[in-house]
# Entry
Amino acid sequence: MKTKLATFVMAAALVAGFVGCMAPANNTERGAVNGALVGGILGGVIGHNKGRKTAEGAAIGALGGALLGGAVGNAQDKKSGNK
# Structure
């Protein structure tokens, strides 16, 4: 069951990444999507290696990555004058 959930979470992250990159967006949105994608993958791998909690690691990593990526993208938008 956990493997199926982890597979679903990873597939959802990939689909969200592809859909998010297809639509024109500002740096904040692109940063949040890309951060969630990378954070979800890294969190899933780390969670799996640290105790078989792949889904929890992926969720935590995706949330952290989205927040960090959105913040970096927002700073880029402010610097370039795009809001």
Residues 34 and 82 are 19 Å apart (CA to CA).
